[in-house]
Amino acid sequence: MTYLLPKLPYSYSALEPYIDRRTMKIHHTKHHQAYVDNLNKALEGLKYKPSSAEEILKNLNRIPLDVRQAVINNGGGHVNHTFFWNIMSPKKSTPSGNLLEMLNKKFGSVEKFRESFTQKAMGLFGSGWAFLVVTKSGQISLKRHSFQNSPLMQGNFPILGIDLWEHAYYLKYQNRKADYIKAWWNVINWPEVEKNFKGALK
To answer: Residue 82 is part of a domain; what is its CATH number?
Structure first.
């Protein structure tokens, strides 16, 4: 199948003032588009016909070694960004339901979860992501991943994540990664995170 750049579920300016319009447009139309284009190129001529990009990352042993790293880089970039756009929203929300219960159980409170997640994100060296995942055993855990590596590659299911590549924030925040992370908490789509959490437990 041929992968396409997904449309954003909101306008490029919808997340302002936390994430600016120019960053969103370049991030989506240039960076994400490049991952899609390069993924399609890497998969040209392969006999393996996955049903989704997520399936590819779960079955990398079916990808020939000569293109596997390109598929990891660009398939991961496509999957991670598609996920990232959907776990953000201009509508204010808060954790609720089973997700809220799990966060309180694991971290003690939502505020302590935010502190732990922020610490995990700030601890990433170089480009990559910080994720809240549901592990294969059904537990929630914080993970750091370099570059565009996806939690799916390790059998984990991402339910929340932040893009920590400089292109995600540098136009507005320059080297102030901590300010970007602090602002990002204002645009999390918690109903979508709850949906991801329920889906991971099925």
So the answer is: 1.10.287.990
**Among 177, 68, 200, 54, CA closest to 119:** 177
> Which structural domain range is residue 161 located in?
97-200
Residue 145 annotated as binding site: no
Long-range CB contact pairs, 138-141, < 8 A, 24+: 138/201, 139/106, 140/102, 140/103, 140/106, 140/197
* 27 annotated among ligand-binding-site residues: yes
**C-alpha triplet 97, 99, 100: angle, nearest 5°:** 70
Structurally, the chain folds into a number of domains equal to 2
The CATH number assigned to the domain holding 143 equals: 3.55.40.20
Which own/partner pairs from 67-70 qualify as long-range (CB within 8 Å, at least 24 positions apart)? 67/42, 67/43, 70/38, 70/41, 70/42
| Pair (82, 140) in one structural domain | no
Q: In this predicted model, what pLDDT tens digit does every residue of 147-161 receive, in sequence order?
A: 999 999 999 999 999
Task: Tell me if 190 sits within 8 A of 95, measured CB to CB.
Answer: yes
What is the model's pLDDT at position 45? 86
Q: Whole-model pTM above 0.90?
A: yes
> For the purposes of burial, counting CB atoms within 10 Å of the CB of 105, is it exposed (0-12), middle (13-18) or buried (19 or more)?
exposed
Q: What is the mean pLDDT of residues 74-80?
A: 98
